[in-house]
Automatic annotation (TrEMBL):
Alphabetically ordered keywords of this record: Cell membrane, Membrane, Transmembrane, Transmembrane helix
Parts of the chain that traverse the membrane: 21-40, 60-81, 93-113, 125-142, 181-200, 206-225, 237-255, 261-285, 292-314, 320-340, 347-365, 410-428, 462-482, 502-529
Protein name, UniProt field: Branched-chain amino acid ABC transporter permease
Main subcellular localisation: membrane
Membrane topology: Multi-pass membrane protein
Pfam families found in the cross-reference section: BPD_transp_2 (PF02653)
Length: 594
């Protein structure tokens, strides 16, 4: 098979010089419009009636316009801006322009729909919309960063998709160690600000705009090569990067004046911790577990029953450290008991059995009410009135002043869950790079071959199942005290409120199986979106399914993928060495089956 390289022309036949100038002018026009009024009434959230001071969605549009303008000016080779595009030069401009038009168009549409027509738009909104359209159309006239290599002439769609691709950045100039460490600190500081802004969005329109501009901006940064440069620096200073990440996470409660959004952050940490535990089972060992949320429930119910609440059937109160150990131990026992007879199954059969276990757990705790069975869990009423934790005299239910900042009750639980996440991350990273971790990967890739090489497949899978159950149990012990009650409906297979088994599995797949940061990002997105867009609750599962379909089509390896997954899901089918190399040798490398 002979491959051809097509020198692709721009999507639109516009001279490159004129296209770049028009893109910069359009971005500048939209940027200037954010300082004008976009509507005449303050009924639209964010008060877009003020001239001279951007507010609400205008701030997000301002960020998109500034990013588009900076990437465009970087293409001119202006000194001081060339570092912005070490990879692609023009694809980041197009992506930033797409995000700019998406945010601007959504704002104009939202104002028109909520206020009753385009008559409610002020000239500033029209100026911003026209500028965003000019920026996007002109950016399509910029040259491509990469040529298309294919066996046929590219279609218009292939030409457009290729215009969004970019080459990998070259080797950067060596920087002093202090400068690289400063870059790491600045990057995590910016990351903290972006995440905090998203969690603190006060109304759905602002959160939708946040998703649009953040999605396109992050993709543009990847195409520009900045994220690859940052990844290389964080790999070089891994310990400093990990410490900076957790310090940035620990700073979050100090940025909040109330507990309203801290509760969202606590639940995100619980969701992410459980998803990371599931990542051991699914991402490393390759076991499809559809009832994983039951282990979270085991830990939560265990902690609730030994918390000293009057609703407990046992009437005992363990200190927190003891309840964590008991919850983890009971979850471990359940993992072994369920895994021992079922892990000899593979694939869909194992998935069906684990799905059955999850449903059996929910039904069982609903029947242990003293009528249908022994009185243990109070049946559908659950275990209410779980007291706040008191750890060595530190009451988690009261506010405390630390470094001059008052931290509320949920801020206390946030810090506790952050410590639990550090433990889970440490366990995951150590286990993944250990001998047992390599055995998990071997089982995941080909269990028959791994068994033939001497790996005890059943034993290895049982360890993964038990370890994942233990980590979920630890998270469950904290969840019981955060929610102050546990009921069977919290641990269903699929439902509108995470965590549930379907959303946990989706968080692992969306973020990237086998990685640490992937499930954390996936869990954050899957929790924040339903929490912020509650008006779409009736269509949540529909949107959830469409998102997974699009993900499987365009990025099956997940948002954050390891190198193995990238090679597996993006195999080109081409020879591993250039044709010129083969032509000059008497022996060459060929594909298997060629």
């Amino acid at each position: 098979m002979t491959t051809k390289t097509h020198q692709t022309t721009p999507v639109l036949p516009i001279p490159a010089t004129a296209a770049r100038a028009a893109t910069a002018a359009g971005a500048a026009l939209t940027l200037g419009s954010t300082f004008l009024a976009w509507t005449w009434t303050a009924k639209f959230p964010g008060d877009l009636t003020v001239t001279g001071y951007p507010g609400g969605l205008q701030v997000l549009t301002l960020v998109g316009a500034a990013l588009t303008l900076l990437f465009t000016l970087s293409g001119y080779g202006i000194k001081g801006l060339r570092w912005l595009t070490p990879g692609g030069t023009n694809s980041p401009v197009r992506l930033a322009a797409l995000g700019l038009l998406g945010t601007m168009g959504f704002t104009v549409g939202a104002i028109s729909v909520e206020l009753g027509g385009v008559v409610n738009l002020e000239p500033g909104a029209w100026i911003g919309l026209v500028g965003a359209i000019i920026a996007l159309v002109a950016s399509l006239g910029l040259p491509h960063d990469q040529d298309i290599t294919d066996t046929t002439s590219p279609s218009p769609l292939e030409t457009f998709l290729n215009s969004l691709r970019a080459p990998a950045p070259g080797r950067p100039k060596e920087l002093p160690s202090w400068a690289e460490i400063l870059i790491i600190v600045a990057a995590f500081g910016i990351g903290l600000f972006v995440v905090t802004y998203g969690i603190d969005t006060a109304y759905p329109e602002l959160f939708v705009g946040y998703l649009i501009i953040t999605g396109f901006a992050v993709t543009a940064l990847f195409k520009a090569g900045l994220m690859a440069r940052l990844s290389a620096i964080t790999t070089k200073y891994r310990s400093i990067a990990v410490a900076a990440a957790f310090v940035a996470a620990a700073v979050f409660p100090f940025t909040q004046s109330t507990d309203q959004y801290t509760l969202i952050a606590v639940n995100i940490l619980i969701f992410a911790t459980v998803a990371l535990g599931l990542n051991i089972v699914v991402g490393l060992a390759g076991l499809l577990d559809l009832g994983y949320v039951a282990f979270l429930g085991v830990g939560a119910y265990t902690a609730a029953l030994v918390s000293g609440t009057s609703a407990s059937a046992f009437g005992v109160q363990f200190p927190f450290w003891a309840s964590v150990l008991v919850g983890a131990a009971v979850s471990l026992i359940f993992g072994v008991v369920i895994g021992a007879p079922t892990l000899r199954l593979r694939g869909d059969y194992l998935a069906i059995v684990t799905l059955g276990f999850g449903e059996i757990f929910r039904i069982a705790v609903g029947n242990l009410d003293g009528v249908s069975g022994p009185r243990v869990t109070n049946g559908p009423n659950g275990v209410p009135n779980i007291p706040d934790l008191n750890f060595f005299g530190y009451d988690f239910g009261e506010s405390h002043t630390i470094l001059g900042f008052e931290l509320g009750a949920y801020a206390n639980y946030y810090m506790l869950m952050l410590l639990a996440m550090i433990l889970v991350v440490l366990v995951f990273s150590r286990a993944g790079s250990s001998r047992i971790g390599r055995a998990w990967v071997a089982i995941r890739e080909d269990e028959t071959a791994a068994t033939a090489m001497g790996i005890n497949g059943f034993r290895v899978k049982l360890i993964a199942f038990a370890l994942g159950a233990t980590l979920a149990g630890i998270a469950g012990t904290v969840q019981a005290h955060v929610q102050s009650t546990v009921v069977p409906e919290m641990y269903v297979f699929a439902g509108p409120v995470p965590p549930n088994s379907a959303f946990l599995l989706a968080a692992v797949i969306l973020g990237g199986m086998g990685t640490i940061s992937g499930p954390l990002i996936g869990a954050a997105l899957l929790y924040m979106i339903p929490a912020k867009l509650q008006f779409l609750s009736d269509y949540q599962l529909l949107g959830f399914g469409l998102a997974l379909i699009l993900l499987m089509r365009f990025r099956p390896e997940g948002l954050i993928a390891n190198r193995r997954a990238k090679l597996e899901y993006h195999e080109t089918g081409q020879l591993d060495v250039p044709d010129e190399t083969l032509a000059g040798t008497t022996s060459g490398t060929t594909k298997a089956g060629a």
